Amino acid sequence: MLVSLRWLKDFVEIEITAAELAERLTMAGLEVDAVEEKKPAFSGVVVARILSIKAHPDADKLVLCDVSTGDRVFPVVCGAKNIKEGDVVPLATVGAQIPGGYTIKLSKIRGVVSEGMLCSEAELSIGEDAAGIMILPGNLTLGVDLAEALELHDTVLDVGVTPNRPDCLSMIGIAREVAAITGKTLRYPEIRLSENDEDIQNLTFVEILDPDLCPRYTARIIKNATIKPSPLWMRLRLEAVGLRAINNIVDVTNFVMMEMGQPLHAFDFRFLEEGRIVVRRSKPGEPFISLDGKERVLRNDTLMICDGRKPVAIGGIMGGLNSEVKDDTETILIESAYFNPVSIRRSSKWLQMSTDAAFRFERGIDPQGQLMALDRAARLMADLSGGTICKNAINCCPKPIEAIRDIPLRVKKVRDTLGAPVSADDIVKTLESIEIDVRKDSHAQEETFLVTPPAFRVDLTREIDLIEEVARLYGYDRIPVTMPAVTAASITQNSRERLSERIKNILNGCGYSEVINYSFVTFRACDLLRLDADDERRNVVRIRNPLTEDQSVMRTTIVYSLLETMRKNSHAGTFDLKIFEMGRTYIQKQSGKLPEENNKLGLLLTGARYEDLWHFKDLQGDFYDLKGTLENIFDNLNIGSVKFVSGANEPFLHPGRSCSLMINDRCFGYMGEVHPDLLDGLDLRNPAQISEIDIDVLMACYTDVLMFKELSRFPSSTRDVAFLVREEMEGDAVISAAMADPEELLEKVSIFDVYDGKGISPGKKSVGLRFCYRAPDRTLTDEEVNKVHSRMVKSVIAHTGAVIRGDDR
Amino acid sequence: MMGDLEDLLEKAESDLRASQTQDDILAVRTKYMGRKGLLTALLRNITAVPQDERAQFGKRGNEIKETLSGWIEAALTEAGARRKDDVLLKQKLDATLPGRRTRYGRIHPVTQVRKEICDIFSGLGFTIVDGPEVELEYYNFEALNIPADHPARDMQATFYIDDGIVLRTHTSPVQVRRMEQMRPPVRIICPGRVYRHDSDVSHTPMFHQVEGLLVDRGITFGDLKGILTYFLKEVFGPDTALRFRPSFFPFTEPSAEVDIQCMLCRGKGCRVCGQSGWIEILGSGMVDPAVFKYVDYDPEEVSGFAFGLGIDRIALLKYGISDLRLLFENDWRFLAQF
Ligand SMILES: [Zn+2]
Q1: Residues B56 and B117 grouped into a single domain
Q2: Is B135 within 8 Å of chain A by CB?
Q3: CB contact under 8 A, B161 and A26
Q4: How many folded domains does chain B comprise?
């Protein structure tokens, strides 16, 4: 909320600088986001009086004026029609700067010297009136700088008022805080009314049909008003706090709202049919055109202000076009009411109308403040419009709001909560400085006060609310810094955190960098990945109010995010990527319930295997590069039982270059080359390898218990054999054939070569196995090794139907 | 004759000094010490030496012979070594060319800051816990004392999923879930992704928070100041000035926002801190008794404080990143800097 310092000074003396005030308010919980100096758009313009007006000798449309600034008389040529001798006007003297970048110069206009210029409101950017010279009040001192005389300088604070402090949504509310923190006294505006003889009771009548939504409705009537623009002082105040001046009546309603925090509405009384007000809920489907000219169709729960026949305003939110104050309005009904905050909030949300009035009502205005604001507005309207105030006010209050009284506040509780030696005296003084009534509870066992906050402090209902008031005005900086006893936490509770960290470290070592993508993706993601109609990953969590369609569903796989990252990078000229993301996927299992959230790891490799082309000319990363990285993860975590089973059956993977990852017969992920058709669809050119694995499954298999195996001090013997097998037989099958009848002396068997080139008959391939034999307690003799080895070879042959290469000819 | 010996030694020395290669040195050896060498000849000619000088001549002659052969040996060794170096020097490589490596990967700056924060709180005995990101409105709002139709809901623009289901707007719901499951004392931090319906230079619809909760007997606002002061000085350095100022959060009371002095302008006011000299870094407060009621803790028995901070914002400050959105664009040129 914008706060004018000049306005504040009507209610409280301010002796500190604006910067200091901003700092003190901030430290009392009213954060000042900005301090802005308001300066007039001109300089060198002074107050002057027209002494005489003569005709210009050579120009019909110009006149020659003698203008006095008190100590000097200036000859000025002027073309305006609205001036007369004796008028007080703004004089831009030679050297003055006026808006638009003009500097006033000594000039000769058709042979006559002019030492300056008389200005209109528009020329000085004070108002919109460009028709004639601005006529100033006659009581201004001549020769005084115009900006000073009109009080155009101001300082405006932008205060962030938290939702719990609706009492601070007004100048008086802020002034009250200023008074409390600077030790000054708050002065309320003096309101004296002079009423005419016509009693309002004879003119109108208010009926509240829904007192739960409108506990109080007050009104006054002004007669014989003349609608015109507000005087400058009023316009300046409204402008300073960010409001636009409209006319003297509407401006007063806004002015009083800004001053006291009570939103008001002014009706043109002649448009209120049957001359009365009925407050009721809207009827479903009821149409209504609000002041902004928009037609709205209402539900059944919006509070409407109606006349004898029809709605004339959306209560607390916006008036109606049918009853607005017009240029020829003479009789005005001023509304000052208290509306139910929840009802206003629901309606303004539903109607998407967030007005200044609704903003205040939904936070809770002073339930007792209606009559005072009503009288203040009536007085101002009468003054500015020349109208008269009818006798008495309507004060319809079917459901008074109970004030909260005598909240117990224990001194010890204050100290225990804050950890500060706050004295009973501190508490009393602090609370009393913001108009809170404090008295001692003589019956209580421990030192206790009974505290009654003023009605406008709707946020103070409990002991803790009062403790906060004490703390904030006592000063958070005065509360001593202490340290609670620190107890050790078991790190086993953070095991997933630690596993994630280990995986990230391994991936870093493998050259992979971490990315973080939004958890939401486009609703088209499933289609782009070509997921089957019955794929579980099509059960997306949909966002009802997405920012864009590209962020409209929660992702069910990380892969799409990674491909997007690849696409964005290739647009930026980066074609080599090794990236991973750890994050969640979300699958809607049952509508209306929370979705399943799984922790996943996604990887993507595209482009060069190594970055340094100097060494590795254009070696593209492939399937086995990514597989190696995954193997590194499982090896390092000592998860030995992972199987890579060819053919992942994922529609977005290359059918011949993909595999499923299995652990204990459970599939927990996949990897492979991205399907070439998919790349086209995503506007990607280079092949990419991707993988996604379920961290939660990995977590379940992971243990940090590790047992050391004794090292044999005896040498090993190795034997290499090349087997000719059917082409389609996979390496894994050959290895498992070797492991099918385990030999105690066999330490390890590995593939050292796969070959299907020259010399190998079609349909076959050669798989070279290296067998490594060792005994823990002795050096093996050749004889021993040969015996075991020949059993091994026989076993492989038996299980695979292989022949030993060389034996096939 | 003795003079001839000394002359010979001098000459041999200068010859040796002029020799570069092993062959040169061998030539010197032959020249002086070969069968027909100059020294050999001189020594052989001992008969020409007067009788009384012979003994001394012979002695000196042998000394010189030994010295010279010593010198020659040394020169040969040196030349040999030099020759090997020459061979090796011919194998010279360009040490300025880049090394051969798999480039080490990078950790996202948000993760780095997250880890730093978690490590500090782990050291203070806090346990890391987590909860759902798609969350019941009840845990995200109601149980945190933010009823429906309350203006405080405006503080957190929300993504809605279904009736009663939202994307969590903060990680505070994890605190409530945790308190439901256990009795005090509670010391937890909840890092994770959170979502708000907002997008501009300083807001992304998804960001990361760490929220913390400490509930025990006798916890005070002074303790809140203590823990958070310790934490912020760990992150931003021991000389960091900070201030606690009153604010409002529905789930804490009294509430405090914590600012650190702007590190760029040292409090004088600049663009980064919006001329205020201070940068808002976290929100905190004493747990509101209403929240305790929801989880069946007795506010007369226990008290506690909660706090929350944006990890991304701290990463921005720490690394001087200009635009929050860069964090989630994952441009390699950005990632490679961390
Ligand atoms: Zn700064």
Answers
A1: no
A2: yes
A3: no
A4: 2
